[in-house]
């Protein structure tokens, strides 16, 4: 072996200090967005059955959750609303006194420096559970756009800092951008669910948002998981229509898409670490099969390494606590 020349890569792994000096990818609390579910009623703090430690919050109690988020230094939340009443056009999504609008007003009044993102969709507000207007069993694209723009404007009027449309209608970013600009909100960014696959990983979220479709599925508007080039076309369309951030959802099974969208767009990329990804980790951890902290940090690192600038994750509070422990 004396005459053999080879690289000694282990030199840079000799101690924790050296490893930290050459570490290429990092997770910071500023990278995280935390989802919050708000519901009608009072004195409601109810755990979502399929999502341990994720709760439905009524407005009189939600400040408990928001206070913890703020105290941990997480810079942003995304608000999902679960209304009491639903109809065929999801009118409570764009009502001035809808659950999301009321929550945003309250949160921004109490925490003006917290960035509040509004999920902009109709599915949890419609009695059929689809993300748009229905006629003869089909989701109509263009009539839905008007309602999405109306919803976005109402959310910004309530105080939302960023609009995050998740419906996957064609032209939804252009319609919302036009609606916001016409209403005088030219400076409000759009965080588009640009690449949203029709995924099996959404089950627990539909439990949380009460948004399962009453018939059929969402495969006519959410993307086929088999398609890569289509994802790039979708992202490019949203860029051209005025998006400011691009979301890839889900994250863990689509790291290749995150990398490609980041490389060709140069836009800020958001990885949505979705409910199914969260719940699988929680279930395995509760059974003692995995180390939850190590698994979560590793998978979030993979998203950052793939090109994500931000991560929308139900693990956000735990992640910040773990980072503080490690320091």
TrEMBL record:
SUPFAM superfamilies, alphabetically? Aldolase
EC number(s) stated in the UniProt entry for this protein: 4.2.1.24
UniProt xrefs under SMART domains? ALAD (SM01004)
The GO terms describing molecular function are:
porphobilinogen synthase activity
Catalytic activity line of the entry: 2 5-aminolevulinate = porphobilinogen + 2 H2O + H(+)
InterPro entries, A to Z: ALAD (IPR001731), ALAD_AS (IPR030656), Aldolase_TIM (IPR013785)
Q: Name one Pfam family in it.
A: ALAD
Sorted alphabetically, the keyword list is: Heme biosynthesis, Lyase, Porphyrin biosynthesis
The reply to whether Lyase figures as a keyword in the UniProt entry is yes
Give the pathway.
Porphyrin-containing compound metabolism; protoporphyrin-IX biosynthesis; coproporphyrinogen-III from 5-aminolevulinate: step 1/4
Establish whether keyword Lyase is in the entry: yes
What is the similarity comment for this entry?
Answer: Belongs to the ALAD family.
Matching NCBIfam families, A to Z? PRK09283.1
Q: What job does this protein perform?
A: Catalyzes an early step in the biosynthesis of tetrapyrroles. Binds two molecules of 5-aminolevulinate per subunit, each at a distinct site, and catalyzes their condensation to form porphobilinogen.
Task: Relate the assembly described in the record.
Answer: Homooctamer.
Protein name per the record: Delta-aminolevulinic acid dehydratase
What phylogenetic lineage does the species belong to?
Bacteria, Bacillati, Bacillota, Bacilli, Bacillales
Gene name, Swiss-Prot/TrEMBL:
hemB
